[in-house]
User: Fold these one by one.
Assistant:
Number 1:
Amino acid sequence: MESSAPSCWSCGASQDGGMTCAQCNALQPPRSDLNPFETLGFPVSVQLDEAELSAAHLRLTRSLHPDFFGNADPIEQAHSLAWSSRVNDAHRVLKNVMSRAGQVLAVHGRSIDTTEGGWRPSQAMLMEVFEINEGLEEIQRGSAGSTSQSVDEWDSTVQGWKDELMAGMVSHGESWETADSVEQQALLDALQEALARHAYVDNLRGRIERVKQTLAH
Ligand SMILES: [Zn+2]
């Protein structure tokens, strides 16, 4: 950044990375390394006020509306379109707590890949998933006892895991605020684990839903 401080495309004044030039007020292009939190003006955290997030999104969307740039320089029109798509993308990934958690990891250079090759589930989690999959297969084969009740039981077990994960996100956000850099690394580890677990839990919920539909027919 210090080697080539960007300058305003319109007046040439050097820029500090803000949305508009402090000198002439012209809209600047979004920085390529701008993360979604910066784009909407929030600190990098799992915990943020979702109503404030929506308000910031709305405010920015309005200020970038094409109507305001109808008579603008084509360069500025192009910047406004680039900003609009950044702002919409940022809102999309931050409005949901789980994808927001993924963005926190990404900002800290952590992998958010929960598929093969990335994070590995614990033995305990694999056992739980295995047990539920077995149970669901039994139900589908009709070899389990009172079938519909059992699938509802699995459903509430998995829903309980989901609730735990959501509660964990809140306490993660709270701990983060007072954590030192070593504690933050441990919290990022925990966040990676929680996201991976969430992916497993969502898969299971989808599977349970499909079994329920089969049983309803
Ligand atoms: Zn300027």
Number 2:
Amino acid sequence: MAHAAVQYFLSLFFFLFFLSPNVVSSIGVMLNPYNPSCASKPPASATPISSSDVDLLQFALNLEHTECDFFLYGALGCGLDAIAPELAMGGPPPIGARKANLDETTRLIIEEFGYQEVGHLRAIKNTVGGFPRPQLDLSAENFAKIMDDAFGYHLNPPFDPYNNTINYLLASYAIPYMGLVAYVGANPNINGFVSKRLLAGLLAVEAGQDAIIRAKLYERMHEFVPPYQITVAEFTNRISSLRNRLANCGIKDKGLLVPHELGAEGRISTNILSANRDSLGHRRTPAEVLRVVYGTGSERQPGGFLPKGGNGKIARELLVDH
Ligand SMILES: *[C@@H]1O[C@H](CO)[C@@H](O)[C@H](O)[C@H]1NC(C)=O
């Protein structure tokens, strides 16, 4: 009798439980955490996150924060502090960010990119922890200085990233690509399967953002950027050359028009994506990335987008190293 009652309650319990599709799938996951129909099984010996992964993944927060506030402000006129203030973790508001004059199609793309960066910040901080948003300089003056450095003379009037769609896209050209090359660079040094999953997911979307920005610029590459007598293609080439010069590790960055021998398979001079001899993404170390985003050519001398330096162990140690 008692046995029958237990059976009855058990079957009622399972019946109610299985009514909810969410419960069904979570029970499936409980019974078989690596359900082969949904996800590949990690190697038996793998650790989820190895301790050396933490600093490398956290380093990316410096770039993700820069992109996040640049895109959100550009599209909406407000940033992370309005959308997900807890992710700023008390870091100071960015200097000089503002809404850009964008056509509506571009504005929506940039708004989406901004939200994607919020997701990236959350994913990184939830997976490996994080640090407060560093001080960011997203002012027109900072971008104007980068463009002056790229051209080797003073652009008159000074370049204003927020003035129109083409300027904003050129300014954006400067950012997700650094995330892309940093993620490709971090990949060989990442060990845990959870860390790898995070890294690949971040890389995929950064690469997509970079491709979309480049494609939009590519369509207009022969246009002059008003009021300068300089084409869109030349702007991209100058920005890429500047970054190669600052990073000081060869050619890992190429604009939209390249000498034939630098194009894909040495057979083409248009260059919608930037990649190496085998058309694989270039990789950069954290030190290379910092030399570029500081705009100083030195990982020990902050400036540019990060006037007080990057946050986290890697950037902080490089500041005082040597
Ligand atoms: C601002 O944008 C307008 C419209 O594209 C353009 O005519 C003007 O020259 C631009 N000025 C600057 C400083 O970029």
